[in-house]
Amino acid sequence: xxxxxxxxxxxxxxxxxxxxxxxxxxxxxxxxxxxxxxxxxxxxxxxxxxxxxxxxxxxxxxxxxxxxxxxxxxxxxxxxxxxxxxxxxxxxxxxx
Amino acid sequence: xxxxxxxxxxxxxxxxxxxxxxxxxxxxxxxxxxxxxxxxxxxxxxxxxxxxxxxxxxxxxxxxxxxxxxxxxxxxxxxxxxxxxxxxxxxxxxxx
Amino acid sequence: xxxxxxxxxxxxxxxxxxxxxxxxxxxxxxxxxxxxxxxxxxxxxxxxxxxxxxxxxxxxxxxxxxxxxxxxxxxxxxxxxxxxxxxxxxxxxxxx
Amino acid sequence: xxxxxxxxxxxxxxxxxxxxxxxxxxxxxxxxxxxxxxxxxxxxxxxxxxxxxxxxxxxxxxxxxxxxxxxxxxxxxxxxxxxxxxxxxxxxxxxx
Amino acid sequence: xxxxxxxxxxxxxxxxxxxxxxxxxxxxxxxxxxxxxxxxxxxxxxxxxxxxxxxxxxxxxxxxxxxxxxxxxxxxxxxxxxxxxxxxxxxxxxxx
Lengths: 96, 96, 96, 96, 96
Known about the structure:
By secondary structure, chain A is an all-beta fold. Chain A has strands at 2-11, 14-15, 24-30, 36-45, 54-59, 76-81, 84-87, 90-94. Chain A has one domain: CATH 2.40.50.220. In chain A, 0% of the residues lie in helices and 52% in strands. Chain A has a 5-stranded mixed barrel with strand order 1-3-4-6-5. At the A-B interface, strand 1, strand 2 and strand 4 of A face strand 5, strand 6 and strand 7 of B.
């Protein structure tokens, strides 16, 4: 899974019927300190994540293994909000 | 999902029978302002997208989770037309 | 799907039994003008493509959604020969 | 599979119900000498790996083929701890 | 599929039970002349490949479509040993 930061949201009225009711967030990959490093992509939120949250995203068919995303044409899902990351014995990120 | 811009279309007469009837569009990945940044790839359109539209594309097996693409040998689908993107509390893109 | 050009072929006598009878072509990703830009990879041909043809390739599980590649250990398939690409209102590629 | 080194761990209280009970480790891709070369990502541990271990990770749907990860929304799994790597006839890595 | 060269092997005693009995080889992506160009990764051998062999590897769920890898948590498989590659009408690689 990728460490990513929620930076925004997307709105789409015209969409496949299987997307109706999903919440689309704009995220960017982040490092172990929670700083964004990657380009933006869009993921379906399943855990009520908010702007600035550091999250985990799963890609591909794994993105469809939640109750919310099952059988939907989505290839990225936010399925966890990170409380903390510990690397090398020290906390590199803690949710404030 | 990737944010992408529709830049053109592709025509193929000789193709696998499961591709017959699909509409093939040329898209390029775009940033949160709707400006193209990536190389071109081809995606099956399921939402009647048009040239210049900012869209979302799903890849891999997720691309086959629409009524149009089910069981077809396609690994990229356009399944939403973006109305707007909001990043950092401001609209970075609005469909004109 | 990726736009790719057929540049050669591969021969393998020793292979998984599920590969027997498949035609393996060497392709390289190409731009909208049909010029090669990417590194070589090998795809199973399902549309009788020939050297120099500009084709579409599908990857991953989608590569197994043709009659020829079903249940085979292949992750890239050629499933269309491009007649033309139109970008920005102009033909950028036409099959000669 | 990728050669990766376990560098830390991740904690997430808010998560999809299918993630409950999984152990999330932070890993980074490594070279044949066991030195980290890649950016961090998060994988579910299925083999009781510890900090500093050189491991193999599998991605995508393959990450769900273990008893622990079956049907879960995870796209990376640690499913082996490496004892040694031999390249060019010499050991380039041995677990200490 | 990727063109890759077998450069070594990996040993792992602690592993998921579904990995028991698999032969893990270290490979690196190669060009059409059989020269290594990419970073190392690990693939399950299904064709008795040996050091120095130029092979094809399949990734993702396609890696599980052989008798040896079915239902196993592996995302890369060696499923063919290349005899030759022909590009631009000339042999660029022949197995010696």
